[in-house]
Amino acid sequence: MPGSRSTLAPRWAARVAVTAGIGAIIVLLVFAGLHSLLLLLVGAGGLAVTSACVWWALAHTGLIRVLAGVLAFAAPAVVVVFYVASGLLWVVLVSLALWVLAVFCGRVALAGGEAAPIRTQQRTLTPPRRPYLIMNPRSGGGKVGRFRLREKAEALGAEVCVLDVTHHQDVAELARRAADAGADLLGVAGGDGTQALVAAVAAERDLPFMVISAGTRNHFALDLGLDRDDPSRCLDALTDGVELRIDLGTINDRVFVNNASFGAYAAVVQSPAYRDDKARTTLQMLPDLLTHHDGPRLEVHAEGTTIQEPQAVLVSNNPYRTDDPAGLGHRERLDSGVLGVLGVKVDSAAQAAGMLRGRRAAGLAQLAAREVVVDADADTIPVGVDGEALTLPTPVRCRIRPHALRMRVPRDRPGVPLGRPAMDWRRVRRLALTPARKAARHDG
Fold it and tell me: Is the CA virtual torsion 227, 233, 235, 241 positive or negative?
């Protein structure tokens, strides 16, 4: 009986998906007739024109940028006017709603029918006796003070070093001194860049490391499943924590916990004007960067694959999800032992429109590798490493260090949000048509 119930929800979700998908097609055919094909072509054409116009606006300046921007907004408006004038706007909206429901239910069905994803093994340890925490009072707009993190950590027996924001301090050296003095855990309440520096010391000394989600974006904390709304809950790792073994990325021997970015974005954030006016600086620099009139021409080598002259490359400590918009931007695992590689190359408006194909787009390369080499036609290139703007000599080598870091996290934590599996209509159809008895026998 429990097995039958476990397969019941996915099967019914699959049946709703199939029914809604068929309904979306029927609505178009019954109420639009032969015009249904025209409706689809007009909608797809509007999306393609909008994508091409966005590319023109980013890759050009002056009048072309203005006209492209106007067309990018005008194209979808023209599509809507066409639907209204033909009296079929409601047909498009109903069909679209049914299709969205079909895809949503299909992914729910596939998620319920899949085996649980592999999770990082964790083990319970005794609480640390001499934990040492470094806190940046400016990080996250002052979360250290707002959540009284120093006071709460000291009450739990931790030695806390609050950074003096009036002058530069070497956090890696602070961590090494603490380790030399007998600290048996190192931790950081700060941004991802600071976390990476201290994590490198923890891995070097084989000490447990903990993160307090007091940064602005807290990407690393998200992928560790920590509470990003209340960073004080991360302190539970000091009293009721478990240890995970996770990977670290290295770039020319410097550790990163999230990613290293190359190309247009890395070049833009290097500009002195970027901090004062991000939008204007980006719009001024992008045309030359996207058309290769400025900046180094990159060449990426990974696992026998070469990416020639991409405009943007992201090398991550474990791959990011890209098959599900809801999961984009986080990693479900940090112990897979491989780097993730995303390369984007768009040289024309047609290629920009082709990016609508998603993972199948010709301009998008997605790889996994243990080592990635980024070379260029320049002696040095700008790189963004965990949010820090650096300039590194070429070739730049990125490697993965499997299970290099002993990560201590609270036993009770929100967990990593799971994305839906990629849509597969054949699997959804098979699941929908699976008889209840057969599903129960298979589940049992």
Answer: negative
The rounded distance, in Å, linking the Cα atoms of 176 and 205 is: 9
CB 380 within 8 A of CB 347: no
Residue with the two structure tokens 């009296």: 87
Q: Please say whether the beta carbons of 379 and 393 come within 8 A.
A: yes
Give the whole-angstrom CA distance, residue 365 versus residue 356. 14
Distance CA 88, CA 350 (A): 29
Per the DSSP assignment, residues forming a β-bridge with 383 are 262, 390
The predicted structure's pLDDT at residue 444? 47
**Interatomic CA distance for residues 222 and 200, integer angstroms:** 19
**Quick one: residue 416, left, alpha or beta (phi over 0 = left, psi -120 to 50 = alpha)?**
beta
pLDDT one-digit tens code per residue, 244-256: 999 999 999 899 9
Q: At how many degrees (to 10) do helices 192-205 and 171-180 cross? A: 30
pLDDT at 121 over 60: yes
> How far is Cα 248 from Cα 292, in angstroms, rounded to an integer?
32
Tell me the helices (H) and strands (E) count for the chain, helix number first: 14, 17
Residue 106's contacts (CB-CB under 8 Å, 6 or more residues apart) are 13, 14, 17, 21, 423, 424, 425, 428
CB 139 within 8 A of CB 112: no
Beta strand 131-135 with 185-189: parallel, antiparallel or unpaired? parallel
According to DSSP, the residues that pair with 364 across neighbouring strands are 344
| Residue 3, pLDDT score | 45
Dihedral sign for Cα atoms in the order 31, 34, 35, 39: positive
Query: Is the model more confident about 185 or about 56?
Result: 185
* Helix or strand run (H / E) with residue 92: helix 89-113
Structure tokens at 284: 């001024």
DSSP designation for 68: H
Local structure of residue 102 (DSSP, 8 states): H
Query: In sequence order, which residues have a C-beta less than 8 Å from that of residue 280 and are 6 or more positions away?
Result: 273
Closest CA to 237 of 172, 161, 158, 178: 158
Cα 27 to chain centroid, rounded: 36
